[in-house]
Design goal:
The protein is an alpha+beta fold. The protein folds into four domains: 135 residues, no CATH class; 87 residues, no CATH class; 38 residues, no CATH class; 194 residues, no CATH class. Helices cover 26% and strands 20% of the residues. It contains 14 helices and 22 strands. Strands 1-2-3 form a three-stranded antiparallel sheet. α1 crosses α2, α3 crosses α7 and α5 crosses α7. The radius of gyration is 33 Å and the shape is elongated.
Length: 520
């Protein structure tokens, strides 16, 4: 950083030693070292000296990668060479705002350099703090400290902790676990300051906050749920309940991790039954063989009775129905068909991509093979193959009339009209007493969900596993369209389905298509 400045001063008549000393002094001031360093060329980032600490801190702030460092040195040198001051506000801002005052950053850098095993790591924290305070123009800045690990409370849940010779902001987990030695995987320990419970994760090589069940049952010998323990099932002797260690994500708050939750039957299936490539397409029964079955897919065991795109569509058809078939000449795909009353329907959702039309649920192409493709209304009007068409609201009502005649034979307290349309598997739902369908007419509907347009957020795929939506050709008005809605316990042809959610059946939303054969 001094090269261009030394050349400039030398060119102005100063001898080399004087030019070098002045340039080094000016750089020390420009980076707010608080003292002057000499013989920059002899300093390295390893060692216990103040010079090493200052160089390491400078390298951390300006050396993001090789290309950036080259660009920085060029920009800084041209700016610094004539007057020995750093005037480029853009570059100063970029360096000064690279890191916040968070001790985790200092810890990570320290540990990374320790891993190189090239020498001792100097206390560079105080020089990072000095530079950041200087670049940001803060006159009051609590910089240096001597007692590593000492902390001061700055708020209800905030502290400053001494690391690398300076105080940095720290959260409760840092203060609680500072200086702890490594534990064994899943080991639980109480925090030094707040009393929170932490678990040791061998893969992360860190103590992290324990999940709720680990915390609540600390005395029950379950210990912490970690990556290595994923899938492990343990018995809680207090309530005689089994818990399984699972990975979880919460997209709403942007967190993930591992936690204990009450074990379900499928957790025991996954633990006790192999599901490798030679086992694919295997179905096994659960404890309750009437309601529980499990399917071995490429993604492991899945609940056959609940909705999963991993279960092939062939398993969702009713073996007691005499289906027909038709082949779409446009792409060669073959679909099962069924005659209901005087109408002939496709018994599965259309999956015609054409010239890139429609979408697969979650934009996963394999999902189209199971649940069909989702279409906007303007595309769906002409998407059915020759001899077939998108049914109107009236034609869906004709279908309903035929199905209701079959429904009259069933106990209304035990079965809903929706059960007549629904496939015999794929509708398992923990939130409704209505679960699997009877599929008495062979419509074999699956809860493939949709891509909904809401007035208050971005389009999103949702409701797979809970609802099926089928487009009709009938407009409700210039913005909305009639849609056949099929839920766990409801079946109807609707528009403006949800009060206050008018985009639920917007023409811009994307739903499934069931083609109807043209009448002769």
């Amino acid at each position: 950083m001094t090269y261009e400045r030394i050349l400039f001063l030398f060119g102005k008549g100063k001898d080399f030693a004087t030019a070098k000393k002045q340039a080094e002094s000016e750089v020390s001031k420009a980076f707010y070292f608080g003292r002057e360093f000499e013989n920059f060329e002899d300093i390295n980032i390893f060692g216990d000296s103040e010079e090493s600490a200052a160089l390491l801190a400078t390298s951390v702030l300006v050396g993001r990668n090789e290309n950036y460092l080259i660009m920085f040195l060029d920009t800084f040198g041209n700016d610094f060479r004539k007057d020995g001051t750093w005037n480029d506000e853009t570059t100063r801002y970029n360096v000064g705002t690279r890191f916040d005052y968070d001790v985790q950053i200092v810890e990570r850098i320290h540990n990374n350099i320790m891993g190189w095993e090239s020498g001792p790591v100097p206390k560079f924290g105080k020089y990072i703090k000095k530079m950041l305070c200087g670049f940001r123009g803060w006159s009051k800045c609590n910089v240096e400290c001597k007692d590593e690990g000492a902390f001061i409370r700055t708020g209800n849940n905030s502290w400053d902790i001494c690391r690398g010779g300076a105080f940095f902001r720290a959260d409760y987990s840092t203060v609680d676990t500072y200086g702890w030695a490594a534990g064994t995987d899943g080991e639980l320990q109480k925090g030094d300051s707040t009393g929170r419970i932490y678990k040791y994760d061998e893969d992360l090589k860190a103590w992290i906050i324990a999940d709720y069940v680990s915390y609540d049952y600390v005395t029950l010998m379950l210990n912490g749920c970690t990556h290595k323990r994923e899938g492990e099932i343990g018995l809680n002797p207090r309530d005689k309940t089994y818990y399984v260690c699972v990975y979880y994500t919460d997209s709403e708050v942007g967190i993930d991790g591992y936690k204990w939750q009450k074990a379900r039957e499928i957790d025991f299936i996954k633990r006790d039954n192999k599901c490798d490539s030679e086992d694919f397409d295997r179905i096994i029964a659960g404890i309750d063989t009437v309601t529980n079955r499990y399917y071995c897919s490429a993604n492991g065991w899945v609940d056959f009775m609940a909705w999963s795109f991993d279960v092939p569509k062939e398993y969702r058809f009713n073996p007691d129905i005499d289906y027909g078939s038709m082949t779409d000449k446009r792409d060669g795909k073959t679909y099962r068909t069924v005659k209901i009353g005087n109408q002939t329907w496709m018994a599965e959702n259309l999956n015609y991509a054409g010239d890139g039309i429609g979408h697969c649920y979650d934009d996963v192409s394999e999902n189209c093979e199971t649940g069909g493709r989702l279409y906007k209304w303007d595309v769906a009007r002409d998407v059915c193959p020759e001899g077939w068409h998108l049914p109107s609201k009236k034609e869906f009502e004709t279908l309903f009339s035929a199905v209701k005649r079959a429904y009259d034979k069933y106990d209304k307290a035990q079965y809903s009209l929706a059960d007549m349309f629904k496939a015999t598997s794929g509708w398992k739902n923990d939130y409704s007493r209505w679960t699997q369908g009877l599929d008495v007419v062979g419509f074999s509907a699956v809860p493939a969900g949709g891509k909904h347009i809401y007035s208050y957020r971005m389009p999103e795929y949702n409701l797979a596993g809970s609802f099926a939506f089928f487009l009709t050709s009938t407009e409700y008005n210039e913005r909305y369209v009639h849609v056949m809605l099929l839920g766990t316990d409801e079946a109807s042809v609707v528009s403006n389905y949800m009060e206050g959610d008018p985009h639920y059946d917007s023409k811009e939303s994307e739903f499934s298509v069931r083609c109807l054969k043209d009448a002769k």
